[in-house]
Amino acid sequence: SELIRGFLLSGMPCPSSCPPGLLALMAPGLALMATFSLPSQAGDRRALPVEKPPGVKGRTLILLDVNTKSPVRIISENFLSLQLDPSIIHDGWLDFLSSRRLVTLARGLAPAFLRFAGKRTDFLQFHNVKNPAKSRGGPGPDYYLKNYEDDIVRSDIALDKQKGCKIAQHPDIMLELQREKAAQMHLVLLKEQFSNTYSNLTLTARSLDKLYNFADCSGLHLIFALNALRRNPNNSWNSSNALSLLKYSASKKYNISWELGNEPNNYRTLIGRSVNGSQLGKDYIQLRSLLQLIRTYSRAHLYGPNIGRPRKNVIAFLEGFMKVAGGTVDAVTWQHYYIDGRVAKVTDFLKTRLLDTLSDQIRKIQKVVNTYTPGKKIWLEGVGTTSAGGMNNLSDSYAAGFLWLNTLGLLASQGIDVVVRHSFLDHGHNHLVDQNFNPLPDYWLSLLYKRLIGPKVLAIHVAGLQRKPRPGRVIRDKLRIYAHCTSYHNHNYVRGSITLYIINLHRSRKKIKLAGTLRDKIVHQYLLQPYGKDGLHSKLVQLNGQPLAMVDDGTLPELKPRPLRAGRTLVIPPLTMSFYVVKNVNALACRHR
Predict the structure, then answer these.
(1) According to its record, what are the GO cellular component terms (predicted)?
(2) Any idea of the CA torsion for 525, 530, 532, 538, to the nearest 10 degrees?
(3) Would strands 73-74 and 331-334 be described as parallel, antiparallel, or unpaired?
């Protein structure tokens, strides 16, 4: 009965009203499959092997309850944020950020930060040029290229005449020519990436205007990473070009936050000269002094040092930085890629060992930060499923979503304040939106997350019946469950509702019975599955059986739930991701912002 299951889950003593056979059911082995009540437990999710009770024929019944009294973590409203790589200057996509379709897609993920940074950050030079034709070097000799360049100029002139948000409707032929240009540049960019040798990039004043217009129109807050590799003979940072950019941005009253450099622990491999953590700390103090001299940015936020994976030498770099500038930055940042995109396979995205690699990194970063600046916010920036630009039909497919959704759940449960996804639109295959401006599976996953998930993280208690493992076999948690208060911005649900999100990596369906405070509540299901014959490789998705696609360039589709009757068991299909809003729980933790 539901009453018996509730007492089993809560651990309370059995009341006199329990049936005589209850003890016989309790003894054989309700095992704790996963408990997320303490953040420190998130990395240890192995199931305890137990004997199978008589009459249970290999089926797993999972009992789920949530602590609704108080949140275990509260993360930023901008928790899921976005990144654009400076390579969009090289391949020309920056000129198309005013596209109505792109702005509509970005607005769907607001509020969020938009970080403009990447491998080419430290090769970026600002040039205060406004004339569009001169800034692009003039039309090329090819007839079609000349038309393309002239179209860009005409588009810029038309945008200049608009008040407020500057939105463009680019002709199809113009986009087709741009895709051809980007395809050619993609090969150049990949060659640079694999050789680790990058050419200089020029960011004009007009290009900065376009970047800021996109962020502002989309409801995103721009974070701009300045070039840290401009060095004086004594290896201190040369801030002259940065100062020019800061003055221009201030003259336009652009609301921007700032960073300095990208993966500074790798500078030796880029230029043959290293910058240690304490020197970068001094550079950040210098940047903070510059910001304070400019009224517009005297209180601007500053983030860093954006180190790479925290191996031993990188941890030493971070310690040197924190000793000098730990109090100067508003959040400490690092970045992570799970696998090498050149060798990735679809089965890689299903490995629980891979999903758990992030837990150890979080602990390492937190240990250093809490040593020098206890309580300082920590961000994971530039996160992607694969490195090296990703792989077609893998890092841009439905399968990559398992890593992405687990990353969001794991980081939130560990108290990481913001995660910045690389990239919104980019060359390669790690992005959320492709070069036809069509949203990919991870975009729809992110959109559901934004619509349904609030900043308050709740503790989950899960218990179930598990088959006895074969000798020597380790059972890893292939069913990942996370819980938050439902987003306050979603007016379809009253405050006090709870959203669960579930990753089922099993090749069989799993059944979950809601217990305790969640028992007998109406549930809205949002089941995301691949659409079409490509299965896990698919770039199309369906929500509750209906394909997801934009209605038009200015309209995202309605995300319709499937209502489940009160008390119904949740059936989680194999190899899927899903969200469940438990309505009218009246959770104390979720009643107020």
Answers:
(1) extracellular matrix; extracellular space; membrane
(2) 160
(3) unpaired
From residue 387, how far is each of 187, 353, 444, 485 by CA, in Å?
A: 16, 18, 21, 33
Band (pLDDT 50/70/90 cuts) for residue 447 is very high
**Which sign does the torsion angle of CA 529, 483, 510, 5 carry?**
negative
Closest CA to 581 of 479, 455, 492: 492
CB 276 within 8 A of CB 305: no
* Closest alpha carbon to 334 in 346, 352, 316, 318: 318
Q: Which of 42, 50, 60, 59 is nearest to 26 (CA)?
A: 50
Alpha-carbon span 423 to 420, nearest angstrom: 8
21-35: burial string, b at 16+ Cβ within 10 Å, e else? ebeebeeebbbebbe
Query: What SS3 string covers 209-227?
Result: HHHHHHHHHHCEEEEEEEC
Residues 6 or more apart whose CB falls under 8 angstroms from that of 226 comprise 121, 242, 245, 258, 259, 260, 261, 287
Q: How far is CA 354 from CA 337, 366, 385, 556, 575, in A?
A: 11, 20, 10, 33, 16
From the number of C-beta atoms within 10 Å of its C-beta (0-12, 13-18, 19+), residue 400 rates as buried
Rg (CA), the chain: 25
* 569 class by beta-carbon count within 10 Å (0-12 exposed, 13-18 middle, 19+ buried): exposed
Residue 343 has pLDDT above 80, yes or no: no
DSSP-assigned states of every residue in 231-290: B-TTS-B--HHHHHHHHHHHHTT--EEEEE-S-GGGHHHHHS----HHHHHHHHHHHHHH
The structural domains of the chain, ordered by start, are: 63-128+155-590 (3.20.20.80)
pTM given for the model = 0.86
Length of the chain: 593
Mean pLDDT of 168-174: 88
Element (H, E) at 178: helix 172-195
What are φ and ψ of residue 256, in 5° steps? -130, 145
Which residues are bridge partners to 460 per DSSP? 66
- The conformation of residue 340, written as its DSSP 8-state character, comes to E
Q: What mean pLDDT is reported for the chain? A: 85
**Cα–Cα nearest to 476, from 593, 565, 354, 380:** 354
Nearest CA to 458 out of 528, 526, 517 is that of 517
- Element of type H or E holding 201: strand 201-204
Residue 81: name the closest of 441, 450, 418 by CA: 418
**Which DSSP letter does residue 39 get?**
G
